[in-house]
Amino acid sequence: MSYAAVTLTGIDPRGVIEGGRLWLRGEGLPAPPDRDAQISVGGAAARVVFAAPDRIVLSITGDGGFLMNGMEVSTAVHYGQQVIWVVLNDAGYGMAYHGARIRNISDVGTRYPRVDCAKVAEGLGAQAFHVREPGQINREFMNKVIASGRPTVLDVEIDPDEVAPFGSRLDTLADYFTV
Ligand SMILES: [Mg+2]
User: Fold this and answer.
1) Pick from 100, 102, 113, 167: most CB atoms within 10 A?
2) How far is the centre of ligand 1, averaged over its atoms, from the C-alpha of 110 (Å)?
3) How far is the CA of 83 from the centre of ligand 1 (A)?
4) What is the 54 CA–ligand 1 centroid distance (Å)?
5) Is the pTM of this model over 0.70?
């Protein structure tokens, strides 16, 4: 998720897993677990937690990635491992939508009705919260989530019109697909 990859600072060395220049949706799923990993930008968190059981594991992903790989929540519930997923929910494939518009190509298939990712997570046995206001996620709130020890999904509604920080992703895609 580009927001996290571009803006995370102050994380311990080897504390972040992210999937490189393409930032694929839900890409973290096949990533190898890393004993020192703390934050997963994608879906690898449910595997990382087994490799680093002494650390708090947080996954920052989009709703598109969650829809593709969110069943990992069930794995964490099954094994009683806490992972905290932060789902940045803009009701679509935001990177594809904005990338297509910037490149002046069709954005067909990049939007869909908003999915209640918190309800999906609850259905899988996790605890979940809707986050709709700035400041709702704060230290006190996170301390309670962590203290629960439960797999948790935070369904964070974000502005679908806000253009995500692409970094070099568009150039990388152009290298592959010449769009
Ligand atoms: Mg999205």
Assistant:
1) 100
2) 9
3) 20
4) 30
5) yes
pLDDT at 30 over 50: no
> What pLDDT, in 10s, does the model give residues 115-127?
999 999 999 999 9
User: Among 131, 135, 116, which residue's Cα sits nearest to residue 63?
Assistant: 116
Q: How far is the CA of 178 from the centre of ligand 1 (A)?
A: 24
Tokens found for residue 146: 């962590």
User: How many angstroms is it from 159 CA to the middle of ligand 1?
Assistant: 10
Please report the pLDDT score of residue 112 as a whole number: 95
Q: Is residue 92 classed as helix, strand or coil in its secondary structure?
A: strand
What domains can be seen in the chain, in order of their start residue? Answer: 3-176 (3.40.50.970)
Calculate how far, in angstroms, residue 70's C-alpha sits from the geometric centre of ligand 1: 13
Number of helical (H) and strand (E) elements in the chain, helices listed first:
8, 6
**Residues in CB range of 25: below 8 A, 6 or more apart:** 62, 64, 65, 68, 93, 95
Q: Judge whether residue 139 has pLDDT over 70.
A: yes
DSSP 120-135: HHHHTT-EEEEE-STT
Neighbouring C-beta atoms of residue 101, cutoff 10 Å: 13
The mean per-residue pLDDT over the stretch 132-152 comes to 95
